[in-house]
Amino acid sequence: xxxxxxxxxxIKTEIEKRALGGRVEKIYQPNRDELVIGIRTYDESLKLLxxxxxxxARVHFTETNIENPKTPPMxxxxxxxxxxxxxxxxxxxKGLERVLVLKxxxxxxxxxxxxxxxxxxxxxxxxxxxxINEENKIIDSLKRxxxxxxxxxxxxxxxxxxxxxxxxxxxxxxxxxxxxxDEIINLNKTSLLSRALMEKIQGISxxxxxxxxxxxxxxxxxxxxxxxxxxxxxxxELIKELKNxxxxxxxxxxxxxxxxTKKPMDFAFMPIYYYENLGEIKKCESFSGLLDLFYSExxxxxxxxxxxxxxxKLLSNSKERLSRKINNQKADLTASVNREDMRxxxxxxxxxxxxxxxxxxxxxxxxxxxxxxGDIKIKLNPAISPHANAQKYYKDYKKAKNxxxxxxxxxxxxxxxxxxxxxxxxxxxxxxxxxxxxxIRQELYEQGYLKHRQTKGNKKPDPIGxxxxxxxxxxxxxLVGRNNKQNDKLTxxxxxxxxxxxxxxxxxxxxxxxxxxxxxxxxxxxxxACKLAAKHSKAKESSQIPVxxxxxxxxxxxxxxxxxxxxxxxxKTAYVNSDLIN
Length: 582
What we know:
Number of strands: 22
Largest sheet: 6 strands, antiparallel
Radius of gyration: 35 Å
Shape: elongated
Structural class: alpha+beta
Strand order of the largest sheet: 15-16-18-17-19-22
Distance between the termini: 31 Å
Number of helices: 13
């Protein structure tokens, strides 16, 4: 990972400069793998984010507003009990290990002053956050590890805290650069220089090792012959510079952006030139700001993915079950199409009763319904009388006739429900906050897809969230719903008859309202509303997106219709090019 021990040392220095001596005023646990510690200093209020998520483990100050659960988890409650009002007095990093230990001057239940430590271990899938007392015993941890999970290092309350097992690598703080280079040259195997650097030097990431390889000018094998004296000296100088940056925390925060999308690709504590034309190198103001920029979008996606997993599973199962049911009904409907043959069989048996004896399994008779009056073979049930055989064919005919009507209606209702589930899928995809998810859950409770929650007393459901709000250049307000419940409230309750309603044609998306306040909307305001309707729809990646629009007074909701479903008349259709919204 790019957040190596040297980068972490720069973060340590940043925390010491800004937060040392500050008091803990808030502690949150937004999800199972993250903590946010609010620290108040004389100059500012800071939010220290600690993440133990395997693919994004890190610690840094954040400006991002992270939504917190209404009920704090048990570890969060424990940390609040132990650390609230404590003072951050030290930040420790042993050598070039990816572990920062935050030490707090706190007061225990008896009023005595104690030193509590919060070890933040940034080690990929083994990342953890561990609270330790003065006796170096574990109070609790974010991830408990028993003997079945790891025989090498057990992390449970009451046990002594032990440092993570060390790696058999050379430390920049202890080994001289010349010795490190000689060790790399004397490897008993051929390897890329970047791999050899990773294997021998403690605390550096792949991006740094590849950059050193690039600056040495060697991208192939490392042997006594391939590393010339000039390249050897160049490598020694680069490692000396690396050592200086590590010892003095003198690096600078650089991020690599995709030149086309401008999305972050990588980061380091020094400029990264080996990307050349593949990336845009940008210097950030701080190491925390860099990490905030790099991880904010993917963290947002991951948080929502975790919090919405139960809804996604429910919708997927419901859609699969409903699709299977509709397919079976369509198969039965296809089979009922041949019901006229059953009536004809009954008529032919009735007309030939005199010629049939009980016990026959089939009979061949003349088909007088056929213009050529050809023979037809009819199967019989030998256990019943000829008359009963005729009645059975009539009965099957009536059953098939009724089935067609019933199945047609059932398939129609099933396809409507399938369409509704797709609309909830879209709402889930667009959800940005936990409140959005709670509104979707409440909708699914009301529609019978989820069992009702057990609530204490007569607790009312949470109020419906506010829609997205936009202001056009000419001063018109545009409101955009984010889920079915918001769409219903926005269109059917909040909007006025003189406002305009926008929605993608026959495509799931948000209800968009152009608020007119009695004015005649400008052409540009109407087009902005069309673009927002296209952007907030399932068709936003399409080339030409049809958007229907009409006055709100022409929009209504049929009785018994699902949330978000409306009908409208007297509308017009505009087409939006996707290049204008993406």
